[in-house]
Amino acid sequence: xxxxxxxxxxxxxxxxxxxxxxxxxxxxxxxxxxxxxxxxxxxxxxxxxxxxxxxxxxxxxxxxxxxxxxxxxxxxxxxxxxxxxxxxxxxxxxxxxxxxxxxxxxxxxxxxxxxxxxxxxxxxxxxxxxxxxxxxxxxxxxxxxxxxxxxxxxxxxxxxxxxxxxxxxxxxxxxxxxxxxxxxxxxxxxxxxxxxxxxxxxxxxxxxxxxxxxxxxxxxxxxxxxxxxxxxxxxxxxxxxxxxxxxxxxxxxxxxxxxxxxxxxxxxxxxxxxxxxxxxxxxxxxxxxxxxxxxxxxxxxxxxxxxxxxxxxxxxxxxxxxxxxxxxxxxxxxxxxxxxxxxxxxxxxxxxxxxxxxxxxxxxxxxxxxxxxxxxxxxxxxxxxxxxxxxxxxxxxxxxxxxxxxxxxxxxxxxxxxxxxxxxxxxxxxxxxxxxxxxxxxxxxxxxxxxxxxxxxxxxxxxxxxxxxxxxxxxxxxxxxxxxxxxxxxxxxxxxx
Length: 497
Description:
By secondary structure, the protein is an alpha/beta fold. Helices cover 35% and strands 19% of the residues. It starts with a strand and ends with a helix. The mean pLDDT is 93. InterPro entries: Amino_oxidase (IPR002937), Carotenoid/retinoid_OxRdtase (IPR014105), FAD/NAD-bd_sf (IPR036188). Keywords: Carotenoid biosynthesis, Oxidoreductase.
């Protein structure tokens, strides 16, 4: 039996705590915020409620595995509601389409909305994506990685290597299979799921739309905040102790291994194993002492591109919007200009002038005070908070000016709600950094920019014995299913008591 300290009560940390406690370890979870959830946040006021992080569940089998391994099955704990359509899309030329909730209906929908042949092209692309998934699911997503050595091992399996196409980009794959620029936009958007640029992100990200469309998109009635609450309850059922408002200031070392943590108030919590659900850049840059034997991990982080962040508007609205989907994406005229702004190409990093706008508006009574109201979570991609070298999101007036811009863009694209706003809350990358500890407000830690970046994220087993990483900034990446898989990998590395 090991004494395990988990730093951070995001989904990855909580899932690791539940698995390790069920395995017989003594587990303490330390969370800086007053509540669990991490980026799976919730905000409420005057009867309006908002999920402030992820707004859908994909690959629900991963959650089913977690609950089955630690106690009662998922369907006895938390209901999931299938979304249909999963997403509605609006393009700058005025055309619209949507992704039906069931895979077999997608091709016909695309043919009807974007023209004959569109469905066949998308289907051919997803057939390639399915082959990529089969080649990568076990060796990459469900197993610990050993950096470039993992790719070298795969290179000996030439058929799988050709399928994954490690030297190709997501954009390049779209050009091979898709002729309609609107279909290419749909594909490019999946790079943003890891805060990346489709022109540099690896072709392996094709697996993201395949998973979403093969296994469906799901919502948790009452808000996705119920998911980390349920996992936290499961962890405590198995004996874990969860302490909120307990920020960790330092990961301690002794005898060449992790030995516990020091809290901001000076309290020391000893441990045999430390599992860090904090951002990997924060762990290696701030939480570990300079003398820790993690020089290689620190150097690797300096070589990668951090993921982008986001600017969020929480809109409490009067009235209802007819025909509004659960998720709506409104594309700009020039998608490349957005990625140029986010990553500092053709000029410095800057707020996006004509951004893609993502609206999450669940038709859920738990999110609104009455049936003549709506609560919208509105997100646009944004560069990180980097005062001095990039965008300073605390600059006076910047957040409100950008929020006004987003509302104007919505109006230009047919969703003018400016006269319906009861109140709004603006959340910037600086707010995300302060609230979650994610450096610069990077949503996913490191991006997948670069041919091998998706395969070379910070490893789950750190170079320091006894220290492990979970969460979106570590392998296998961001998003609810991958974060949950990171916890499964770490539990396997630690082993049973």
